[in-house]
Specification:
The chain has about 250 residues and is mainly α. The protein folds into two domains: about 100 residues, Protein of unknown function DUF2935 (Ferritin), CATH 1.20.1260; about 120 residues, Ferritin (Up-down Bundle). The protein is globular and about 55 Å long. The termini are far apart. The structure holds fe (ii) ion. The site of fe (ii) ion (FE2) has 6 residues, from helix 1, helix 4 and helix 8.
């Protein structure tokens, strides 16, 4: 489907190893979620998803010997596949449990992976932190909605908790969109921007507390839901990564 051998690729060691490992695992998880949620009626799409799952698993095993070019070719190929699924969902219909918004977020994450790996558009005019907010806030809002929707209806307290997280991430996203407009003044830092960063850090930290508690409940089979633990771990890694980009 795509070549894993790229001559002259930069070793992952020249990129931040943690960043490369985060994106490899992140894209691998997306392939897993697609594979797990496609109906058996979509066998050929499931086989493609399985291919990506195995491909990214192999890159994870290679660790720091995989090149950024190789990873970028995988990320680009996966991005095209995810867009193909999204197009089918929006037109003819696709027998799959992921929503179009969730699929679209996985495309955004593939685009960010490509940018980090040096193969995507740089959009250098946008402040890096604000770009991070505009990428991750809607993704975390969507993740929180997915989690609450997968909880058993009798888990009222947890459902309220995750709906609360989703709403606060959406409100914070609306704030970030306006801040992006304020940067047209040429300012990059002003008091309200500092307060916004603190607000975001507090919200992500609160979300991480909830996720770690949910992981504990999942691991002990203490919560009623249809959530796989791997999904909660995936969301927790995304929230930690986002928090890390805020310095
Ligand atoms: Fe994700």
């Amino acid at each position: 489907m795509f070549s894993s051998a790229c001559k002259g690729g930069i070793s992952i060691a020249t990129l931040n190893a943690d960043t490369a490992s985060f994106w490899t695992r992140n894209l691998r998880d997306h392939a897993l979620f697609v594979y797990d949620t496609l109906s058996p009626q979509e066998e050929s799409e499931r086989q493609r998803a399985l291919y990506y799952l195995r491909w990214f698993d192999a890159r994870l095993k290679e660790g720091s010997t995989a090149s950024t070019d190789t990873l970028a070719s995988g990320a680009e190929s996966l991005r095209v596949f995810l867009l193909h699924l999204l197009r089918r969902q929006l037109t003819e219909g696709l027998s799959m449990l992921l929503t179009p918004t969730y699929l679209s977020h996985t495309v955004s994450e593939s685009e960010e992976a490509l940018r980090v790996l040096g193969s995507g558009p740089s959009r250098s005019s946008l402040d890096p932190q604000l770009r991070s907010h505009l990428l991750w806030l809607p993704i975390l809002a969507g993740d929180a909605f997915v989690i609450q929707g997968a909880l058993d209806e009798i888990e009222k307290e947890l459902i309220r908790l995750y709906i609360g997280h989703a709403h606060r991430f959406e409100e914070t996203y609306a704030y970030a969109v306006e801040l992006a407009g304020f940067l047209r003044t040429g300012l990059t830092d002003f008091p309200a921007m500092d307060r916004f960063r603190d607000m975001v850090r507090r919200e992500i930290s609160a979300f991480l507390l909830s996720l770690r508690e949910l992981e504990r409940l999942e691991a002990g089979n203490l919560v009623l839901d249809k959530l796989p633990l791997v999904f909660v771990e995936h969301v927790r890694r995304e929230a930690e990564f986002y928090l890390g980009t805020l310095g």
